[in-house]
Design brief:
It is built from 23 helices and 20 strands. By secondary structure, it is α/β, with parallel strands linked by helices. It has three domains: 141 residues, Response regulator (Rossmann fold), CATH 3.40.50.2300; 145 residues, Alpha-Beta Plaits (2-Layer Sandwich); 244 residues, TIM Barrel (Alpha-Beta Barrel). An eight-stranded mixed beta barrel has the order 11-12-14-15-16-17-18-19, surrounded by four helices. It has a five-stranded parallel β-sheet with strand order 2-1-3-4-5, with helices on both faces. The protein is rod-shaped, with a radius of gyration of 39 Å. The chain starts with a helix and ends in a 9-residue tail after the last helix. The chain binds ligand C2E and magnesium ion (MG) (2 copies).
Length: 568
């Protein structure tokens, strides 16, 4: 390769450093056949030339004994300087003892004075230049030109090699810059580059003491591996501390760190770092923590959630989502009377089995998928109500849950009315439950939507009342028809005085607003008795019944005496 390059490229430049003129000339003449030769008369002159021309010099021929600065000192300077250390050095010597010490000092080869074998000298020069150029080619593939850290591929290759000899406990560390693209956009790419270089040099310094290696895996993502250090957290802390003291012209930077503690050495190294990166990504937008540890349970949860999101559409198509009905009983008379029901969704997943709404409702609320699911429930519930109306002549009103995201659907009203119309139902047949926290989130919009719905004849229940932060002032302006007391008050009313007082408070508020209260989560007679004595009119809870599949709820309707006469 080198021979070909030699023909197409200009001659390589060789620096001869020698204080004796005659020697300089002899050597210069020998080298001039193949190289462009420049000379220095002492060490200091050589260093000055090198600082100017480091990039273009391919080889240094260095005498050891010189005035001003000797050859050993030049060698030391070259080896400590990153730009100069890429130039090979051949020491010129008369003294055999000096050979060993100069090779130890970083020389690559030596040539003996006097110069009586020109061919040998040329051959040695060529070989050394060749070796260095090949090494440089490899270096450029293995390191990132911007930061000098390893490239990702070489990083993992080296880990595999080191791992053959290592079995100590080890943490994988991933480091990343919050909003790095913004720094680039706002402050310019050169500022961005400067930041990346500073982080890389800080990491390198820290690793120097721990024999670790690092790479820049992507634009602003750094991977750190220390085979013998189990305290990844301490390494990360030191790097963060060092970086916190650094300021860049105008950019404020914030680093995040993900650590996969005690990696499982049976897994491939890429996976150790994928997991550390997951922890790191989890910190996005979290301004209270800079370091997060990978947690396999959290990871499993994330995978599970991704699976649920992936499977939702198919499950809707296949009707794997099933609507259950939980009866609500009026308790204001002598005997409890079935008044209405709440439609509650269940997911009979074909592979994962029964999944509770607590596992997927908050997930789908978070990403907007809930809208699709809610519509499905409304339609399924409407179908059943119509069927029962057909069969029994009267229909129990069924309440459905309306998520806060539905409130922002401009077609909400039309959608609901469309479903009713399709099934021959009216707004009296379908009650709407809206959770209290939706009211406090977006009060104005909600009040407007709810007012419109009520104008069309819908009745609105405020769900989970007491769990949100409605102000008393807001409650007076809010249009609602029923309060559903948050279940935790009922759950604790027999256990602590405070919950009992809160139940009373909700009852007072309902009297003030002149609306009935539904108490959810009633499981025991004692709870029912107290609620009844407080004036609560409607109960929903396991005491009467768990949520039932449609056919069992239908049996319940059938058993309910004198159904046709009942005024729902
Ligand atoms: P929620 O709307 O407040 O529904 C009441 C929850 O309390 C139901 O849980 C019901 O099974 C449970 N429950 C009723 N009585 C008792 C009792 O005596 N003891 C106990 N321990 N629990 C009782 P579920 O079905 O697991 O639903 C949980 C939540 O998921 C619901 O709370 C609702 O917020 C949401 N959800 C359920 N179905 C849907 C739906 O179709 N759409 C939307 N957006 N949310 C739904
Ligand atoms: Mg509800
Ligand atoms: Mg509720």
């Amino acid at each position: 390769m080198n021979r070909i390059l030699r023909n197409v490229r200009a001659k390589r430049k060789v620096l001869v450093v020698e204080d004796e003129r005659i020697n300089r000339e002899i050597l210069g003449n020998i080298l001039a056949q193949d190289y462009e030769v420049i000379c220095a008369e002492n060490g200091q002159e050589a260093v000055d030339i090198l600082r100017e021309e480091a990039d273009s010099v391919s080889l240094i021929l260095l005498d050891l004994m010189m005035p001003v600065m000797n050859g050993e000192e030049v060698l030391r300077i070259c080896r400590e300087d990153r730009a100069l250390s890429r130039i090979p050095v051949i020491v010129i010597t008369q003294d055999e003892d000096a050979e060993v010490s100069s090779i130890r000092g970083g020389a690559d080869d030596f040539i003996k004075k006097p110069y009586n074998m020109p061919e040998v000298i040329l051959a040695r020069c060529e070989r050394i230049i060749d070796l260095y150029e090949k090494k440089e080619l490899i270096d450029s593939a293995e390191t990132d030109p911007l930061t000098g850290l390893y490239t990702r591929d070489f990083f993992f290759e080296y880990i595999r090699q080191i791992e053959k000899y290592s079995d100590a406990e080890m943490d994988a560390i991933v480091m990343d810059i919050e909003h790095f693209h913004l720094i680039n956009e706002i402050h310019g790419h050169s500022e961005g580059d400067q930041i990346l270089r500073k982080i890389a040099s800080t990491i390198t310094e820290e690793l120097g003491e721990n024999y670790g290696i690092a790479c820049r895996s992507a634009a602003d993502t750094f991977y750190i591996y220390c085979a013998d250090v189990s305290e990844g957290g301490a390494i990360a802390d030191r790097i963060l501390k060092e970086m916190s003291g650094v300021s860049f012209q105008s950019a404020k930077i914030r680093l995040r760190v993900g650590i996969n503690k005690h990696v499982n050495r049976l897994d491939p190294p890429e996976q150790w770092f994928d997991h550390a990166k997951l922890a790191c990504d989890g910190l996005r937008g979290d301004y209270t923590h800079q370091v997060a540890y990978y947690d396999s349970a959290a990871h499993d949860r994330q995978l599970y959630h991704e699976r649920l999101i992936r499977d939702m559409d198919r499950s809707i198509e296949h009707k794997d989502f099933v609507v259950f009905f939980q009866p609500k009983y009026g308790i204001d008379g002598d005997k409890p009377v079935l008044r209405s029901a709440e439609a509650l969704i269940r997911w009979k997943h074909p592979e994962l089995g029964m999944i509770s709404p607590g596992d997927f409702i908050p997930l789908f609320e978070g990403n907007g998928l809930i809208q699709k699911l809610d519509r499905y429930v409304w339609e399924e519930a409407a179908l059943k109500i119509a069927h029962w109306k057909d069969r029994f002549g009267v229909a129990v009103p069924v309440s459905v849950n309306v998520s806060r995201i539905d409130i922002f659907d401009p077609n909400l009203e039309d959608r609901l009315l469309g479903i009713l119309k399709k099934n021959g139902l009216t707004t009296k047949d379908l009650l709407l439950e809206i959770t209290e926290s939706a009211y406090s989130d977006s009060a104005d919009r909600l009040i407007e939507v709810v007012n419109n719905l009520r104008d069309r004849g819908f009745r609105i229940e405020m769900d989970d009342f007491g769990s949100g932060y409605s102000s008393l002032n807001m409650l007076t302006t809010i249009p609602i028809d029923v309060l559903k007391m948050d279940m935790k008050f009922v759950r604790n009313m027999l256990k602590d005085e405070k919950s009992l007082k809160l139940c009373e408070l909700v009852m007072d508020i309902s009297r003030f607003l002149d609306v009935p209260v539904v108490a959810e989560g009633v499981e025991e007679q004692a709870q029912l008795d107290i609620l009844k004595s407080m004036g609560c009119q409607i109960i929903q809870g396991y005491y009467f019944s768990k949520p039932l599949p449609a056919d069992q709820f239908e049996e319940l309707l059938e058993r309910s005496a004198d159904l046709s006469a009942k005024n729902f």
